[in-house]
Amino acid sequence: MTDLVRSTAADLAAKIRTREVSAVEVTRAHLDRIAEVDGTLHAFLHVAGDEALAAAEAVDVSLDAGDAPASPLAGVPLALKDVFTTTDMPTTAGSKMLEGWVSPYDATVTARLRAAGIPLLGKTNLDEFAMGSSTENSAYGPTLNPWDTTRVPGGSGGGSAAALASFQAPLAIGTDTGGSIRQPAAVTGTVGCKPTYGGVSRFGLIACASSLDQGGPCGRTVLDTALLHQVIAGHDPRDSTSVDAAVPDVVEAALRGAGGDLTGVRVGVVKELHSDAYQPGVISSFDAAVEVLTSLGAEVVEVSCPSFEHALAAYYLILPSEVSSNLARFDAMRYGLRVGDDGTRSADQVMAMSRAAGFGAEVKRRIMIGTYALSAGYYDAYYGQALKIRTLIARDFDRAYEKVDVLVSPTTPSTAFALGEKVDDPIAMYLYDLCTLPTNLAGHPAMSVPSGLADGLPVGLQIMAPAMADDRLYRVGAAYEAARGEFPHPSAV
């Protein structure tokens, strides 16, 4: 493995700017690494080698001509979750329903990455339509965890997290509907941030649950993640939910936090997200991380958010309801998979056959739950009640942030579980997202930072902040990261 693939994105960007190394060399090194290990890990669904090298060459030509870099990350390659549309690569969302489909337009996130001079290495694997916690629900096979290839890399964005952890990419993009950035980050020993809802455009992001979905940055360090956050964030008039406000200076916050001083920062430990039912190594790692924050000058107090206990039930009514609505567009009439169209069947029959063939078991399960919850006679009892719980959760957050600046918890109740262990038990799979769901329901930002190992596997520290206070995550995360020291790397690949 070359030093180039082990380097941070920030270091690579600096070397490219000073011409110590070319963007083409950096990109080729990562493509070589993909060729070396991805046959085992299956982090990528599509590798765009020629396109990535062409984008890197354009950066080199521009810099050699004396032009200013397009962004602080110009020339640093990236792995893109296969749920953002791209005009030069298939966008499948991990589903047979969109196998081979190439979008006529780029997502806003894709366009901003291209404009920043970031070569796109390819598209990463995910649970189908981002529905799952293990990347086992992908129609194209599971991704494996680089720390232990008998275990899952988390989900739904396990491909992006595994690509980072195995040094196939220095940066990645994920999406987070109920923890799909943070949870994979925790179990692969990487960093992942879910920005404030509306902080990153959803235009061109294939929808799972529109009031919960949020694209966000992933990296191996807090600073790398902040630099990527700065590239993709900001208002987009094509997204009606996009926040028309200045992006918090997350890079400055990360640099400030790396100094290691958290004097005056109030940190709340969420009582409801600290349970004896969690894996003991997860709890001990979390408690040790809280001690580190205290040693850096932070004031740590316990905070109660009682409505969090109902977050799982509310989430798994709201999300399936929105899934039922959003996935109705996959009707075999306009694009995507079409089955049974032999001229003898009606449109309804073709639609039914195509959806039966194109959607996997978990997607079908959530469509059926959501359709039931939205049906006449049940709407108020299920979906309506879930929205009330969502409001209570937001109020719990508001009360907590009157007392503290950030909240902390473990990111996941346990380390990565074995492949196949939970795939036939939906409730057990859903419980894996207990700690991450509340922030999605409230629309707040949250981050996972590696906090140690439990039984040889990574554990994550979750940091949460109020809406549009994403910079607090980066300050606290960077301070903790600096005090923690260098995190070990996986030896499985």
Structural summary, described in words:
- The protein has 493 residues and is an alpha/beta fold.
- Helix content is 40%, strand content 12%.
- Strands 1-3-2-4-6-5-10-11-9-7-8 form an eleven-stranded mixed sheet, sandwiched between helices.
- The radius of gyration is 21 Å and the shape is globular.
What are the key terms here?
17 helices, globular, 493 residues, alpha/beta
Structural class, please?
Answer: alpha/beta
Strand order of the largest sheet: 1-3-2-4-6-5-10-11-9-7-8
Global Rg? 21 Å
Instruction: Kindly state the number of beta strands.
Output: 11
Largest sheet, if any? 11 strands, mixed
Topology as H/E string?
HHHEHEHEHEHEEHHEHEHHHHEHHEEH
Q: What's the assembly state of these chains?
A: single chain
Beta-strand percentage range: 5-15%
Task: Give helix % range.
Answer: 25-40%
Low-confidence stretches: none
* First and last CA, distance: 10 Å
The number of helices is 17
User: What sort of overall outline do the alpha carbons produce when their principal axes are compared?
Assistant: globular
On the 0 to 100 scale, the average pLDDT is 96
